[in-house]
Automatic annotation (TrEMBL):
Coiled coil: none annotated. Residues 30-103 form the F5/8 type C domain. The lineage of its organism: Eukaryota, Metazoa, Chordata, Craniata, Vertebrata. One of its GO terms (molecular function) is ubiquitin-protein transferase activity. PROSITE patterns: DOC, FA58C_3. Pfam families: ANAPC10. InterPro entries: APC_su10/DOC_dom, FA58C, Galactose-bd-like_sf, HECTD3. This is DOC domain-containing protein.
Amino acid sequence: IMEPDVAAVERLRFVPPTWSYECDEDLVHFLYDHIGKEDENLGSIKQYVDSIDVSSYTEEFNVSYLTDNHEDTYWESDGSQGQHWVRLNMKKGTIIKKLFLTV
């Protein structure tokens, strides 16, 4: 467990004098767009994997289909024929006993 950054915590205790309702709205939009989006892609493996990166994907067959536990869905690269890749960034201490890939 990390020690708290005392200076950062102190700065966040009070609302900055220039903060406005528009700042609140911007913050909410930013958090909605960015926080937790990666977890949506991890599906059932989020306890073992920090993130998944792929060479590319189509909008219809995106990276979330790699881990949705449905045999009828799949990830599809948006690139031309050739090298395509999937990178699993594993959580520290994870031991892999089995890894299944279907091509």
